[in-house]
């Protein structure tokens, strides 16, 4: 392989830039040309490429977002779109791709590989941590730190005014952020899609904590929670059923996706970039680089896409015990 393309696709996450830097520098180290592709698969179809050398990625290890920009492409889902993309890569002499993103990104890569036998390695980048085959995706650790910092601040108001706060965090289909940040921030209850607590149980728990002498409480809610009510409806429901609580809602939103990556995410991104490029150079394709037991691993992309990332159930129990 003489030329490798690197791109970011889907939702951005802190650590993507550190991964781009690592891919570019590993290519330079092995005397392989590297091109950056803008806006994910959109940019592949448009031939929006830029040659990148080791110096072109200076000063980005500490930056959130992605300098290559990101997009979710509809056209790449069509055979016609993928044919154009393949032609553009051939025209530019790009022989393999490192794709950084989530399962949508990997699905696109898989289909593309099947059609054109084009070598692809994936790097998991999403704050949601919802990818099978890695204990951590890029950006997850940074997002957790951001959420904990926000809840620490919210706690000041909660305790000064004896209030109950519902804090909504990201996690469309999974509760990793809610569960980990909830334990880290000392939340009273944590509502996640994987576990339906039920409204009755929530009310009982809040009543119990009042009785045990707590004057304020934080409940962390994953946006994909299946309790059947959104966070504002939850507030109304609790206020209607428990008059001892003064309730507020805080939706953290996209601030969770931005900001400088944590040291953990920078190190992880650097390791993943090296592993991705060196795997391609060893002739491997259709794998996702991951972190398992602090070792770099390769999981077939197909499994990474199909497998379900499991929440850490031990944390549910820890949370329950901590809210005694
Ligand atoms: O990056 C994943 C995620 O943060 C989800 O938790 C959330 O539902 C989604 O992105 C929102 O993304 P967007 O605003 O880009 O559609």
From TrEMBL:
Gene3D superfamilies: 3.40.50.450, Phosphofructokinase domain. Its cofactor is Mg(2+). Keywords: Allosteric enzyme, ATP-binding, Cytoplasm, Glycolysis, Kinase, Magnesium, Metal-binding, Nucleotide-binding, Transferase. It holds the Pfam family PFK. Its EC number is 2.7.1.11. Pathway: Carbohydrate degradation; glycolysis; D-glyceraldehyde 3-phosphate and glycerone phosphate from D-glucose: step 3/4. ATP binds at residues 11, 72-73, 102-105. This is ATP-dependent 6-phosphofructokinase. It comes from Gelidibacter sediminis.
